């Protein structure tokens, strides 16, 4: 069986993936045959090896591949066909593409055709966003009145990751009943105009002062430290890939805009600098997940890895 999830709404894709995994785990208790790959980090040979591997555990195999379209088109289609994955009852193959449909891509066309199951997750707006927020609030035991709902949409928009965090915060505060505008105004920060990609730009430019300022502002605006670190790790990995590839960087498959910006920033780093920062990000991520570390002060250790600007 092949299940293909794609689109720009990463929150709903992630929720659907969790739903599918929970369903798998309910029937395959040990989940020891679950494999997760990401084609920004794993190679094609990793997928081939896991498809070939025969487990001694008598449970179905679940393979999740994120960023599936970074695989070579013809080679990937041939591999999936060779294992009869569309009709397989022993392997559940879930492919993820965190973006809209590409103009031309043989692998994409293969994944969306029957008998495969495919779903597109477009960003929510207007009436669909309102309906989604109402349903989410009710699932948390609260009801939003019209003004409270409008306030959330005006100040957070279609960022479902933050909307879910804010509604959970409101539910924890209100406990039950109708949530009105004053409740939301007291608990939800207004838009600050911060683009968290500016933070990765400051890191890439080695601008310590601006990086610290943007980090603090992002936290005050309600961003989750762990999510910010994930974005930073993605950016530093791109810098490392571009720096290592040199003149061959165009073959990395990065979006032209990302490649141009990353190539410019990579000139300011040595490869060992980037590896050191990635290690620091991992240490900070672990500290935030396993202790009561203060994200504002702990981030200073990461910034200390940057040379003076």
From TrEMBL:
Gene3D superfamilies: 1.10.8.60, 1.20.272.10, P-loop containing nucleotide triphosphate hydrolases. GO terms for molecular function: DNA binding; DNA-directed DNA polymerase activity. Pfam families: DNA_pol3_delta (PF06144), DNA_pol3_delta_C (PF21694). One of its GO terms (cellular component) is DNA polymerase III complex. Keywords: DNA replication, DNA-directed DNA polymerase, Nucleotidyltransferase, Transferase. InterPro entries: DNA_pol3_clamp-load_cplx_C, DNA_pol3_delta-like_C, DNA_pol3_delta_N, DNA_polIII_delta, P-loop_NTPase. Residues 4-114 form the DNA polymerase III delta N-terminal domain. Its EC number is 2.7.7.7. It catalyses: DNA(n) + a 2'-deoxyribonucleoside 5'-triphosphate = DNA(n+1) + diphosphate. Residues 195-299 form the DNA polymerase III delta subunit-like C-terminal domain. One of its GO terms (biological process) is DNA-templated DNA replication. It is an enzyme of class 2 (transferase). Belongs to the DNA polymerase HolA subunit family. This is DNA polymerase III subunit delta.
């Amino acid at each position: 069986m092949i299940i293909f999830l794609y689109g720009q709404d990463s929150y709903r894709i992630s929720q659907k993936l969790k739903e599918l995994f929970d369903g798998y785990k309910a029937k395959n208790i040990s989940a020891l045959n679950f494999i997760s790959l990401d084609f920004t980090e794993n190679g094609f040979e990793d997928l081939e090896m896991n498809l070939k591997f025969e487990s001694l555990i008598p449970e179905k195999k679940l393979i999740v591949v994120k960023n599936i379209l970074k695989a070579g088109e013809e080679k990937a289609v041939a591999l999936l066909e060779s294992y009869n994955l569309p009709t397989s009852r022993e392997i559940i193959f879930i492919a993820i593409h965190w973006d809209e449909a590409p103009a031309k891509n043989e692998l994409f066309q293969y994944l969306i055709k029957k008998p495969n199951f495919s779903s597109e997750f477009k960003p929510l707006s207007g009436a669909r966003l309102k309906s989604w927020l109402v349903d989410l609030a009710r699932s948390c035991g609260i009801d939003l009145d019209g003004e409270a709902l409008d306030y959330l949409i005006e100040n957070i928009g279609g960022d479902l990751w933050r909307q879910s965090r804010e509604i959970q915060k409101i539910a924890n505060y209100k406990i039950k009943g109708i949530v009105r505008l004053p409740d939301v105004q007291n608990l939800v920060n207004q838009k600050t105009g911060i683009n968290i990609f500016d933070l990765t730009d400051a890191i890439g430019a080695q601008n310590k002062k601006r990086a610290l300022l943007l980090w603090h502002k992002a936290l005050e605006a309600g961003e989750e430290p762990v999510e910010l670190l994930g974005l930073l790790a993605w950016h530093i990995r791109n810098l490392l890939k571009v720096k290592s590839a040199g003149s061959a960087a165009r073959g990395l498959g990065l979006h032209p805009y990302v490649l141009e910006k990353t190539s410019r920033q990579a000139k300011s780093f040595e490869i060992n600098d980037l590896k050191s920062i990635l290690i620091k990000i991992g240490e900070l991520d672990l500290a935030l997940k396993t202790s009561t570390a203060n994200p504002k002060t702990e981030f200073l250790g990461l910034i200390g890895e940057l040379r003076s600007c």
